[in-house]
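Q: Please design a sequence for this.
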């Protein structure tokens, strides 16, 4: 074996010394990924294109009915690996909230299906948001955002939570100031937007990177999808029965929750009840001034639905069984008296009189729509140096407390 010369021994020792000193004082600097997330392929122009088996199907065929081989709607992709990864840093960085306690993940947590397990979300200083947090899976395919569909792009959408005093409570000026003052963000934005002036970082770049990350959250590989692509054993007998009820002209679920996204992206008035004492939520009427949308909400996707209880815009139902049973309890049964004459329910909301067993099978089927295989990692550190993710959703706070007995005590007991 080659023996290192005296000179290189000295260099090696110096390196080790510097290396260990660095490890103790500061973790390795944050670098952005140069490869696309799983499911995406890197093109020659450094952009990530989504690949899906659904691309081989012809959307004109079966359109509207949502058969097994219906293509996906148009999507947003083509971001660079660096932009997507920078968006991941921003998404988990509590620097984005006014008091630096909340990140996007505080209400859209990967361990809770990118929702927060609450009927209505909790913003800074314990303030209550007016609705529940939807899941963020498959945002790449949506054309409107929020329960009432009031935002037309992801960029427009995120100005809601960022600047709402009941959610993240930030201002554009403070957001720009804190991101531009951070030398790590300066370096990462320069890497993610090489063709643009390096300074100052703009709101468009911040929103663009977060949108890039959101469009990378793809869930299209559930057991249902395996079945749709031709693997007949992927669903068991109960789930298949449930799928047939779901698609039947009696239950009509698939006419609004249309495969393969399990939403037709339209607004529908279905008459979900508010909690006792809560005012009637006028939904899409308030932003459209269209009285026929009074109490209307965007049809939510049912992908990963088993992970995001409670259900509906206000968490009215604790589980999938109750959410399904709502549809069979009678048209408009839950509307307040004074709304019954005003609200125009969707004509597919009827009284399918589903039997108990059919409701159970529906739940079985919806549970086959779970796929988290592309869940991105929570960064181990974020540029602000704050705790990645910030405040956890309540459901995770208690479970971590139970799962993690104070390690310090365990160590001292062992000694
Ligand atoms: C305090 C909790 C909270 C925080 C923090 C939060 N959100 Fe939300 N998010 C919500 C709620 C509640 C809604 C639904 C509001 C409505 O529809 O009126 C929502 C809706 C959304 C939607 C629309 C989804 C759909 O299907 O229409 C997207 C996208 C989204 N949030 C992304 C983000 C991003 C990105 C951030 C960080 C910049 C963020 N959210 C921070 C609670 C939060
Ligand atoms: C007319 C259209 C329509 C039909 C038909 C329909 N839904 Fe819905 N569904 C919606 C809308 C709109 C919402 C959201 C309503 C709200 O939040 O107030 C929703 C919400 C849901 C939710 C909760 C989703 C979430 O993220 O919280 C589930 C579960 C659900 N529907 C299952 C079903 C099942 C099962 C059927 C068939 C028995 C069905 N739906 C039929 C329009 C429809």
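A: Design:
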């Amino acid at each position: 074996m080659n023996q290192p010369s005296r000179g290189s021994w000295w260099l090696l020792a110096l390196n080790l010394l510097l290396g260990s000193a660095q490890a103790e004082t500061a973790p390795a600097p944050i670098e952005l990924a140069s490869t696309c997330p799983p499911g995406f392929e890197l093109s020659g122009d450094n952009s990530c294109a989504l690949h899906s088996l659904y691309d081989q199907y012809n959307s004109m065929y079966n359109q509207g009915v949502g058969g097994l081989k219906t293509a996906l709607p148009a999507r947003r992709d083509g971001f660079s690996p660096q932009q997507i990864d920078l968006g991941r840093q921003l998404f988990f960085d509590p620097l984005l909230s006014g008091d630096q306690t909340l990140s996007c993940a505080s209400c859209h947590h990967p361990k809770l299906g990118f929702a927060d397990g609450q009927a209505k979300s909790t913003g800074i200083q314990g303030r209550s948001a007016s609705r529940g947090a939807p899941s963020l899976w498959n945002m790449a395919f949506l054309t409107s955002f929020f329960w009432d569909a009031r935002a037309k792009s992801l960029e427009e959408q995120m100005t809601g939570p960022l600047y709402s005093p009941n959610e993240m409570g930030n201002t554009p000026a403070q957001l720009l100031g804190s991101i531009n003052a951070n030398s790590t963000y300066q370096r990462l934005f320069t890497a993610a937007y090489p063709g643009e002036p390096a300074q100052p970082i703009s709101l468009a770049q911040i929103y663009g990177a977060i949108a890039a990350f959101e469009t990378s959250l793809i869930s299209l590989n559930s057991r249902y999808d395996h079945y749709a692509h031709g693997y007949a054993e992927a669903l068991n007998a109960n789930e298949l029965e449930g799928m047939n009820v779901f698609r039947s002209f009696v239950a009509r679920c698939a006419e609004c929750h249309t495969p393969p996204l399990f939403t037709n992206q339209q607004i529908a008035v279905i008459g979900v009840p508010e909690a006792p004492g809560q005012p009637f939520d006028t939904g899409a009427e308030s932003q459209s001034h269209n009285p026929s949308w009074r109490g209307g909400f965007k049809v939510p996707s049912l992908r990963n639905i088993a992970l995001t209880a409670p259900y509906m815009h206000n968490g009215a139902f604790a589980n999938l069984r109750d959410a399904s049973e709502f549809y069979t309890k009678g048209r408009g049964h839950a509307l307040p008296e004074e709304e019954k004459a005003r609200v125009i329910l969707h004509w597919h909301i009827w009284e399918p009189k589903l039997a108990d067993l059919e409701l159970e099978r529906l739940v079985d089927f919806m549970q086959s729509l779970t796929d988290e295989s592309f869940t991105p990692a929570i960064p181990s550190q974020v540029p602000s140096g704050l705790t990645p993710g910030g405040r956890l959703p309540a459901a995770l706070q208690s479970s971590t407390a139970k799962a993690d007995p104070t390690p310090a005590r365990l160590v001292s007991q062992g000694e």
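Q: Thanks. Anything notable?
A: The pocket of heme C (ligand 1) is lined by residues 96, 102, 104, 106-108, 121, 123, 129, 131-134, 136, 139, 145-147, 154, 157-158, 161-162, 167-168, 210, 214 (CB under 6 Å). The first strand starts at residue 40 and ends at 42.
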